[in-house]
Amino acid sequence: MNVLLLGSGGREHALAWKIAQSERLGTLYIAPGNAGTASVGTNVALKVTDFDAIADFVRSHDVQMVVVGPEDPLVRGIADYFAADATLRDVALIGPSKAGAVLEGSKDFAKAFMRRHGIPTAAYQTFDGTQVEAGCRFLETLQPPYVLKADGLCAGKGVLIVPTLSEAQRELREMLSGMFGTASSRVVIEEFLSGIECSVFVLTDGKDYKILPEAKDYKRIGEGDTGLNTGGMGSVSPVPFADAAWMERVEHDIIRPTVEGLAAEGIAYKGFIFFGLINCDGAPKVIEYNCRMGDPETETVMLRLDADILDLFEGVATGTLAARELRHDPRHAVCVMCVSGGYPQQYAKGCVMTDTDVEGSIVFHAGTARNAAGELVTSGGRVIAVSSYGASRQEALQKSMAGAAQIQYEGKYYRTDIGFDLHD
Ligand code: AMP
Ligand code: GLY
């Protein structure tokens, strides 16, 4: 089977690495990919949102499966585009329809969906530009800190958590007057939940689902979860509090009603569902849905996914997922992300990289490229992720940190405390 994987980050290198191990694989193409994906497949210079160009490539290269990494093409309807074209309809598209991707594309839709299906989440109300004063009054009924979320996609920047009422009211006015463009033309205000977060992933064919290994990511730039938010500085899997009893509750209260709710509402969903959960005194609640895998969670989840991923994807495409096998590798996995100096603010690109082959670890490229001279160079804020197995989380972390220390480029920075808040 020839497969086209869309995307260019560490998540996609990790997916490509796993796909490349499948016995069913013919040729793997990655569009646009990065310098790392080029080592497990063939990079193709296509934009992930240029559906016409993707369709031409699929037809001309006999591609039988398209795996969508990032949310953007899904929210823009790539699955519907394929379904509507007689020459593409038989291509297995791993990713939900536009109607399904709205779970990520609209926070208001996701909250209303959870309300309809009794799925535990923070209490909320949504306000638009005509309801600024009502929104300000709603904020007065809540306890600090205040959580404000732009309804639409904001590349991870649409959530504000502010400590005081006056600040929250000021931010609400700014958001509703276009701070994030049309993405914040509606704002969800919700109750603040405290607890430790955990990312749970399922693959679904629209009827049945399989639960992948869970993970936890570390979003802040600084040690001890301090400083600015980033795309993710590392991840661990498994997560100790996500034990069998907790996962049973997650499945019963959250996963099953979500998959059944989508089906009951006639929403076509064949792909990953990412449940961003928070553990509130033992009770799991949904912080957010995403319609794709997480990054950098994928960089540990793929290490622990004991299955032929193309077999699972085939099950998704043909509605036979229930019959496929998936096990969780019992080992621990830890990913440490090396980023560019200055990230998540201003940073340099094009820094030459050396010593990137790390013995005993798996190195996933996130923002790398080749320069005109063929040298490996940095090309993004998040540059390269070192993932390792260990008999314990500590052992896996030590290996990944040794790898992160070995890799060389100007301005390299990484956190040394990934997993610090977890206790077995
Ligand atoms: P989101 O983009 O919805 O994942 O939100 C970004 C981050 O904000 C989450 O990962 C949480 O750390 C935090 N967050 C979002 N909603 C809440 C909430 N209701 N209570 C506490 N923290 C939240
Ligand atoms: N790691 C969080 C995300 O991918 O959105």
Helices and strands in order:
Blueprint: E1 3-7, H1 10-19, E2 28-32, E3 42-43, H2 51-60, E4 65-68, H3 71-75, H4 78-83, E5 92-94, H5 98-105, H6 107-116, E6 124-128, H7 132-140, E7 146-150, E8 159-162, H8 165-176, E9 186-190, E10 196-204, E11 209-211, E12 216-217, E13 220-222, E14 226-229, E15 234-237, H9 244-264, E16 271-280, E17 283-290, H10 298-304, E18 305-306, H11 309-318, E19 327-328, E20 332-339, E21 362-365, E22 368-370, E23 376-378, E24 382-390, H12 393-406
Parallel strand pairs: 1-2, 1-4, 2-3, 4-5
Antiparallel strand pairs: 6-9, 7-8, 7-9, 10-11, 10-16, 12-15, 13-14, 15-20, 16-17, 18-19, 20-24, 21-24, 22-23
The structure holds adenosine monophosphate and glycine (GLY).
- Uncertain residue segments: none
Mean pLDDT score: 96
The second-level CATH architecture of the domain at 3-98 is: 3-Layer(aba) Sandwich
Q: Helicity level, as a percent range?
A: 25-40%
Secondary-structure-based class equals alpha+beta
Main sheet specs = 5 strands, parallel
Beta strand %? 25-35%
SS element count, helices:
12
Cα shape: globular
Q: Measured on Cα atoms, how large is the radius of gyration?
A: 21 Å
What CATH calls the topology of the domain at 3-98 is Rossmann fold
